[in-house]
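Lecture notes, unit on protein representations.

Consider one protein chain, 270 amino acids long.
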Amino acid sequence: MSEFESRVGASPGAYRTELEMLADGKVTWVVFSGRMASGKDAVSDAIRLPGKSIKIGYGDALRAELARVMPLIHLLVSGESDWATIVQRVSTVLGIPEFAAAELLELLVPDLKDKPALTPYHRTENMRIALQRLGSTWHEADGPDFLPRMIAPMVMRRVRDGFNVVMAGSRFAPDADIPRLAGAITVRLDVSQETQIRRLASRDGLQPSPTTLAAMRHPGEVALDNYPHDLRLSNDTDGEEAFFSVVDAVSEFVTDTMRERQSRVVHPST
């Protein structure tokens, strides 16, 4: 059994073909990280790689989980159900403790009253906090490998189909460690706090309130600051030229890594 298969709870040999494809450079898996407003989503959307690519993210997996309970929260907001019932049902659906389910309701019920069409893809302060906690403290009992274990089957399925997989949103060491066991390339985009504040205000309308500043210091924002990433770049300058300079640097690095892996493949003599 490979160490990757062991960490994600797969059976021995379950991903042998996919791991060989990654090792041989036939496809690649790129994992981006960076503090909020570092541009990781924009850069990961724009990179150019050989072959066909698809984007999958930890954030997308968490948003999909949260979307499962939004109808339940609407029942509470509309008065069709009571607090205790919805806390219990949210706890069951998400597999989180009831105290965590209650915290989720405290965060999202006020927002839903103001914005009934709110979804997990809206960038509100409380939605951001809910996603951060869903990916960390609310699932502490599931261990630090919770997110990589959840997303591994999705990634391996795409690799098997011949796609490069691009991911944005890794936050803690296992989110990078486990993909690297499969041959993933990790990329960190750095950004200053001043730039974060400016971009959050212009992009999301978020002012540097105590809530926003606390979210910027959340462990999931800073845990990978000193991680030994395969590639680390500053994305602190705004503007089209600076943006595409970062995109080009990442694209070139990943493509070169794929070609280097391809060059190591030993072909049987004919």
